[in-house]
Amino acid sequence: MSLVLQTIVDGLVLGGLYSLAAVGFSLIFGVMNVVNLSHGVIVLIGAYVSYILWHALGVDPLLAIPVAMAVLFAFGYVYQRGLIQLAVDRSSLLASMLVTFGVALMLRNLLVLVFSPDFKSITPSYAFNFFTLGPITLDFVRLSALGASLVLLTFLAAVLRFTGIGRVIRATAQQDMAARLCGVNARHVYGVTFGVSSAFAGASGAILGIVVPFSPPDEALWTINAFVVVTLGGVGSPSGALLGGLLLGLISTATAQYIGPAFPNAMMFLILVLMLLVRPAGLLGNAFSGSR
Amino acid sequence: MNAAPAEPILRVVGVTKRFRGLVAVNDVTFDVPAGSICGLIGPNGAGKSSLFNLITGYYAPSAGEIRFDGRRIDGLDTYRIAQMGIARAFQIAKPFPELSVLDNVRIGALFGHAGARNVAAVTAAALELTGLASLADRPALGLTVGDLRRLELARAIAARPRLLAADEPCAGLNPTETEGVVDILRQIRAAGVTVLLVEHDMPAVMRVSDTIFVVDAGRKIAEGPPEQVARDPRVIAAYLGTPAEDAPAA
Amino acid sequence: MLVDGIRAHRWWLVGAGIGLIALSLAPLFLMPFHVRVVQQILFSAGLAVAWTILGGFAGYWSFGNTAFIGLGAFAAGLLETNIAIDSPTLAFVLATLFGCAVCAAVAALLAYPILRLRGIYFAIAMLGVSQVLGELTNNIDAFKGSLGIILPKLAPAAMEPQVFYYYLFLVAAAGTLLVGFLVKVGRIGYGLLAIREDEDTARMLGVPTERYKIGMFVVSATLTGLLGIIYAHSLGYITSGSVYRTDFSLNMIVYSLLGGIGTLAGPILGSFLMVVLTQVVLGRLLDIHMFITGALLVAMVMLAPRGLLGFAENLVRRRGAGLRTVEP
Q1: The complex's ipTM?
Q2: What CATH number has the domain bearing residue C129?
Q3: A89 contacts in C (CB within 8 Å)?
Q4: What is the pTM of this model?
């Protein structure tokens, strides 16, 4: 029984991280139909920003979150306006996918050159403090990771719902042309959406380092994670990302616990393929309207 | 089954199509005689396009049956229906955009109605008939609306159908272009092809059709030669008599 | 139709024949290093052409064709190392047939559900399939994916191994190209073109879209598997990491895109340029291969989305020459 509870708690911690890492991918997909294959590498850049700050200046990873978000917001805005929009204009959405794939390869290569292909992790002073709650063991690091993920997701949901730019983003997601006719500068909105998306990817990266080790080749895994989260939870909303992320986290830890530690990835890809084949509309029926 | 000359090539018998709560086509029955040009008319949303989609296999009917040349075709896959000899020309032209006009038509000739054919000759004849021969090497992407409509017809003709279902081939065309399309339809019929036409351009459809079916709100409300249908009070009430309400864009 | 298509492209066939003769004689004159480079070009071009049969012609871009490299290699390797036949050549032939058959069977099983997905969803689902197979091969002991399989040496004593594999790759690549050519110039080729342009309209015109897609998926998978089996033997030793390689999946697309997507000459041209660029020109800069591939991908999409052949065609057309509608 305690093993089941422990597995669930571990799954939720990991799931919170998956949710936060995927929410930006989901937003970009929902608003501009672009599949951003460089999403995972942006997550990792966030992790390396946090790593540098902790390593060089001793900044706590949780305090590195705003820095990573600011840096990656700027990166995301420029990336969209400077490259992705051009690719979409020039040819097709498939072309935009290839461009993001190319950029992911370039950035991954750069990360390897700068930081080496070795695994890195961040271990703040409280990394080894833990407490027990009945039969469950919780450490501060993972608890703070889950807390930060949930706070940030709530924050993003609030921004989208209550602020002016949030409403415009949602309106553009629903009716691109109509929003344009209402005087919305769609390109600017796309840029901001990409910036917001990258900022939250960066935030998840900053937290990631204290939960799991990371290395540049992981970027592909984080991109595919995001895709699976969207497949499970639905596209374009923080709540969908939360649902999908938590599910993936639970599936992942349960697989490691009950099938074998080597199988979470195989299980994740299997679920991705099966979801696409059996229920491309997502569990709640709001993903992938255009898949068939 | 022996097909006597009087045998209709297409029989629609008691066909109904429901989309969830909505009844788009309600118990419609009509026969299209072989070798004729028949017009299918009705106000917007009357169910004309749904009927076309049923005949060409895009949807399966909820009830009733559709027979082509004596054989049931309702529920068959669209490509099988095409291979049996029904071709469709879309209202909104759907060319293969990156291919040339020639290749667009050639694909019609290579596929479409099953059976032996001379691809090159069929392609050339279809281009000639629709007056597109001079544009053969152009990519379909850059054609004008009128040329696209003719390409749509050319590709359908190249499929060597026995029944051509043409969805508003004159919509949005100017009088000269409309005259051209009407002329093409007559020549297609002269070559032995039966034509079923959905059309909003009343003068055009009256001039070219042998028989007209009128649908309104999913039901067939009238059938007969053009002059008779035009005088039918139900038709006038449903359609012709209230142009100001039914045709806001006109 | 097929005969007409072949006749219309007879000069291409003549060119390909001359190329084949030249390539058959080449090992007599080349240094060992260059034999290996050309062998690499043949392997890459074969993969890119096999990918093109579905991806380029019908527009179904697989992001996971390496699934069939791995599947073919492991199926053949497992049979070959467990079969009790004295003649290594016979064992190899049987194993190759078995590996190809496994690829064809798996593709046929997957085809119906997975080809209902379109665009990026098909692409990602194939990526998922390749990852699942790779992970399972790596983690289920019976497949020996992490431990690895040592494959028997096949090259006759009188022949350098790289020359032997050079000829195997040449035969496989030429066969793949021939299949691609027959598909392209025949009726199927036009049907695939129609599917690429607008699948619903194609079906409305009587193109048996499902049958064509499934058929070409199986053909593409089988040819990819064949190349994978030869590749595995040329390595002599395989692990799941050496054959289930995402960069293989990627390279097929990049090479096709570089040369010109939807053509047969394009993937060959693209493979030639990229292999020469990465192996010869930048042979010492292994560290930045990925960066170069990425940059090239971005540059091609932005500057020449129709590939080098399309770029050249635009140049020619601008000078007033006529438009050729379908180039092989």
Answers
A1: 0.85
A2: 1.10.3470
A3: none
A4: 0.86
